[in-house]
Amino acid sequence: MTVRRECQESLTNEFEARVRPPLLGNSVRCSAPPRMSNFTFRAPQENFTVDDFELGSVLGVGSFSKVVGAKKKDTGQVYALKIMDKDFIMKQDKASHVKRERIVLDQLNHPGIVQLLFTFQDSHSIYMAFEACEGGELFDQITRKGRVIESDARFYTAEIIDAMEYLHGLGLIHRDIKPENVLLTADGHVKIADFGSVMVTEGTKIILPPLAASETACSFEGSAAYIPPEVLNNSTATIESDHWALGCTLYQMLSGTSPFQDSSDFLVFKRIKARNIKFPSYFSDEATDLIDKLLDIDPRRRLGAAPGGYPALKMHPFFKGIEWSKLREASPPKIALDSNDSTRDTTNISDGFFPKKSASIDSSDSKRGTRRISPTLELNAAKFASVDSFDSRWQEFLEPGECIVLASKIKKLRLLTSKKVQLILTNRPRLFYVNTSKSMENMKLLWSDNPNDITIQVLNPSHFKICTPMKVSSFEDKKQLAWHWKKAVEGLVSH
Ligand SMILES: Nc1ncnc2c1ncn2[C@@H]1O[C@H](COP(=O)(O)OP(=O)(O)OP(=O)(O)O)[C@@H](O)[C@H]1O
What we know:
binds adenosine-5'-triphosphate, seven-stranded antiparallel beta sheet, Phosphorylase Kinase, domain 1, PH-domain like, 17 strands, about 30% helix, about 500 residues, single chain, 3 domains, Transferase(Phosphotransferase), domain 1, alpha+beta
């Protein structure tokens, strides 16, 4: 039996067995005795298989998961099904991340937190079924609207604060508050998601599985643009780290970009440490003041931190008119739909989750080379494609009969560095890049054939991520073709 196999079985056992508190006793952090005996999950472990569900469209892709709309065949109930590949989780050393999310979510109960309903597994994957947030990510609202008007941003921020107050009251630090992890219900209320990075403060009553040796509160978690300066300086994450991330999120809602945006993580970190921030002139005085106080370099002085705590934060003039106790009864901002999806009514869940053409794969369709490029895509491709697409230099990388749909010279981003590559999408379909900075050009295949194996996440017009089950790669396209890449790939996948 290979080591990998043993690890996989151990993950299965640890994750899905009824976890008992002694296993979870997380040394100093979890000082209050948790529920000791007969520990059972509120969200049960079911004996379902993936065949019990009709899978719909991909709702989102995380670093090591794919979330799809899924309708239970016998009940017709719709869920957001998070699918995690066990092999991939083991390879990425993320087993404790997954366990933490499962166990923490099981103990939370708040309208502003996404609810875990049940889990199941098979030999390859772990499945977590969540209540579906049909409104998608707050991030998409920002992208679609360009920026969110102040009254809408006030509402979203108030609902995020309401959920954060609940989490912090339980002694939980989320550590990854950002517009991608703020989901919206069909009618537009906020639900915070993604609890894989969560940490507990001393005295919490929340049960957490033990940390992997590599994971501590001051380990580097979260997304570059929202990491607070003290964590970059190797201090421990605290509740106030979430307040910093909230300040960044509000800034992003109002301006369309994060406050410390730059071309590489390295430069972003430099800006954060220097608190190099510029407030656009169209921000109101109240918004500027609130963000300024949330983005205080000193975590102890951040608005929302003790001693004023949440009452002081909620009394800030930016929130004038907010009825904190009636947030969930208030009318949320209208959800902006994807321009390709203008007919979709978010109140009718099955429209959104189950487009007429199911995303499931037709085996004949998925065979290499049989999928046709659609007429619209052909037209658009000509419009999208830079001159590079027709550069004969790339012919040597093509198979007989294969043509380039879209190609562009772009930057492949890594944590601290980047390299110039030629990214090429073909009608096979195949997506690969050629490393142009090397004298001996070498080619790396990112994806081919299987429509379920690729998602493009657009962060802004020039930045996007290509997500496949094995890898998430980040790119910067100076020609601002990020949306074109997404549309071109999706066009090939759905035909
Ligand atoms: N309940 C839900 N309803 C609708 N969409 C969801 C739901 N849960 C997650 N998603 C979508 O899936 C994406 C990935 O989910 P999630 O953040 O939980 O995955 P992850 O692998 O933990 O990601 P990360 O890389 O941020 O750690 C979300 O950003 C969102 O777009």
